[in-house]
Design brief:
mainly beta; 277 residues; 17 strands; 15-stranded antiparallel beta sheet; two-stranded antiparallel sheet; 1 helix
Amino acid sequence: MKTTRIIASLFLIAGMIMLSAGCKKESTNITNTDTSAAKDNFLAESAFDNATQWSDKAMAGHSLKSTLTDTVYMGTCVLATLDLTVMPYVLIIDFGQTNCKCDDDQYRRGKIIVHFNGSYWVAGTVITYNFENYFINDNQITGTRTVTNKGRNADNHLWWETVVSGSVIKANNGGAFTWNSTRQHEWTEGEATLFQWWDDVYLITGSASGTGTNGKAYSITITNPLKKKLNCKWLQSGTMDILVQDQPLITLDYGNGTCDNIATVTVGGQSFTINLD
């Protein structure tokens, strides 16, 4: 069994949730699908987590002797500037005022503004992400994401705590929803190549909650760490419990570590597979 991008897809099917944009139900005996809360959560989680990937790409191309980074890793319509003359330092990733098609086939406009007081890899560093008129596929992303380097754990792996308080205003008058998350990211592979983000592997634990555009509260708890390779579109393994207001508990299982788009949903003792895109 296999999986997707830096975060999850959740199914809400006859009281189940699916956290993936455009997930397809492969079990034909389940009806009355309501995927709105699932899609809301997936949209928020992927959008906020993706901000770190963009800052990693920008810093991979920068020189400490210059305040202007190149666009080798980001595309020609993205401009990143780095100001080391202030403290905390400021990185601005500017996608322009009109939609810019990025290397992940998503359209963005506006700015990701990053403040940081030291290197991402140094214990005690705090990195704060804010958003200025920032849109992904015409969905406006607002709020704050704070990443704190917590040093090394018992396995000698660097790890970070990530706290998000945000909201999303959906495209085409689709409504707005809130999203709050506290996650721990353990860096298990890729430390030997600091400026090559694509070979990094993380284990993710923690929880999230919010209120969807459908007005229903939801909560998500990772019960087995989610494995994320940055060079893979999907999560490779791990499980999470998903609870949506007035719905039964759902368990989402991302599989055994293979990079693909298949996951398993279990609800009410019944299991079925889903495609994550």
